[in-house]
UniProtKB/TrEMBL annotation:
Keywords associated with the record: Cytoplasm, Protein transport, Transport
Biological processes per GO annotation: autophagy; endosomal vesicle fusion; protein transport
Subcellular location: Cytoplasm
Parts of the chain that traverse the membrane: none
InterPro entries: CNH_dom (IPR001180), Vam6/VPS39/TRAP1 (IPR032914)
Protein's recorded name: TGFA1 protein
CNH domain: residues covered: 23-296
Cellular component GO terms held in the UniProt record: cytoplasm; membrane
One Pfam family hit: CNH
KW Cytoplasm (keyword) present: yes
Amino acid sequence: MSVKAFKLVSAVEREMLMGDKNHINIECIECCGKNLYIGTNDCFIYHFLLDERISTAGKITFAATKQLHKYLGLKKPVSELKAASALTRLLVLCDNTITLVNMMNLEPVPTGARIKGAVTFTLNENPVSGDPFCVEVCIISVKRRTIQMFMVFEDRVQIVKEVFTPEQPCAVAVDGYYLCLALTTQYIILNYNTGISQDLFPYCSDEKRPIVKRIGRQEFLLAGPGGLGMFATVDGISQRAPVHWSENVIGAALCFPYVVALDDEFITVHSMLDQQQKQTLPFKEGHILQDFEGKVIVATNKGVYILVPLPLEKQIQDLLASHRVEEALVLAKGARRNIPKEKFQVMYKRILQQAGFIQFAQLQFLEAKELFR
């Protein structure tokens, strides 16, 4: 049974990005606060400001205002973008080279600092250096079976560590000293400080695109065999039951308490609290799904959309209205971490009372008594 957890809202229409140039495709996106950056296949970066608007009826829309665009001077696609807001820098991967550009004017840093030989890269969101004016970057190197760790400052880069892997890595996520890696035939956790590694489970990267995503401190979400979304900690164990995805998931994102997944036809929403599928949104030709500071963004080759979460209280009331008491109570308990304590206690008491009346009307007197109590 479905819950309306998200609404899909258009953010950047194709005309704003490409006008009548049909050959332009969106390759990657990055969002930092109100700043949205788009990298394209013809080596351009576009910068938009996203303005969220709420109508009197409570409907949310987004107005994107184009700030500027910049050609990087190559005939290659911009394959990845990551913002380092503390440094006001955007890290741009194009033609196996990561360049540092200013977040506001998109000009390269005057020193020309760059990282060469990167296949893909990610930032360490739980950094170990303790320096607020540096970001830690992990790259999969063009050198075979090699991962490199860098410290990136405002105008310079410094290599920290080079780590060799048992097989060729194809995807990576970082938490502190821990790397969660998709290799050719399996996922592993590797501590790059001690060199100790731990096998997680087998996976064939030739058949499907691996997904490795950090979802919290010392915890990752992975695309497992049999269409399962698997959770793994840095200790190599799973503290949550898996969610059942389709076999061909392209991307995944977290917006607590939901895991959102994209395949070639749909966006699916599963609850982390009871692992049930709660919502399915038709979405054709999607190829990017990412979350940025709680904002979930999806994109096709031609347009960018935002998945706007409905307020949890509204979702709970909808569940109660359709007499789905257990699900409403599970969601209400899960909402505790998103709502201030005093407000939560008032809300939770009211929900227990409503749930009690529903059970009472269904002649489930013992259950109703517990809820009223």
